[in-house]
TrEMBL record:
<dbReference type="InterPro" id="IPR018551">
    <property type="entry name" value="DUF2007"/>
</dbReference>
<dbReference type="Pfam" id="PF09413">
    <property type="entry name" value="DUF2007"/>
</dbReference>
<protein>
    <submittedName>
        <fullName>DUF2007 domain-containing protein</fullName>
    </submittedName>
</protein>
<feature type="domain" description="DUF2007">
    <location>
        <begin position="16"/>
        <end position="74"/>
    </location>
</feature>
<dbReference type="InterPro" id="IPR011322">
    <property type="entry name" value="N-reg_PII-like_a/b"/>
</dbReference>
Length: 150
């Protein structure tokens, strides 16, 4: 029986909800010559609902490289959602209709905002289909552009 030295052991560095974000972090580490690999990528890609149950897409490194990898990823922000420039509305300042805060972002809805056809399609596909809405980070209210105070 052989024992691995502590510095050669593999550790989980970070877990990601999105496979794209995990690949971006992996590419950043590989660019700095730090060997790493991903697990659970196919499971999470196959069905997004399995992600939280399986722990997400995990990024593994050698224990001896863990501190350097954390330092590299600390200053590199890896987006959790990829958005396209065409998805964003025009850049005027939007205020929350509930609390009048300007701490508002546009993106996929976090609450169930289904119409009946969208609910049925979501059930058939096996993952939620959500539209894009504004989200207030101050009061957690989600709203459409028509409800926004500009």
């Amino acid at each position: 029986m052989t024992f691995q030295p502590a510095e050669d052991r593999i550790v989980v560095l970070e877990s990601f909800a999105d496979p794209i974000a995990a690949h971006m972090a992996k590419s950043r580490l590989e660019a700095e010559q730090i060997p790493c690999f991903l697990t659970n990528e196919n499971l999470v890609s196959l069905n997004r609902l399995y992600g939280p149950a399986s722990g997400g897409v995990r990024l593994h490194v050698r224990q001896q490289d863990a501190e350097a990898a954390l330092e590299i990823l600390r200053y590199e922000t890896v987006p959790m959602a990829v958005s396209h420039p065409n998805d964003a509305p025009e850049p005027d300042i939007v205020h929350c209709p509930r609390c009048d805060s300007t701490d508002v972002a546009f993106g996929p809805a976090t609450r169930n905002t289904y119409s009946f056809p969208m609910l049925m399609l979501s059930v058939l596909l096996g993952y939620p289909l959500r539209g894009k809405r504004f989200h207030c980070f101050h009061c957690q209210h989600e709203f459409k552009r028509s409800e926004a105070v500009v």
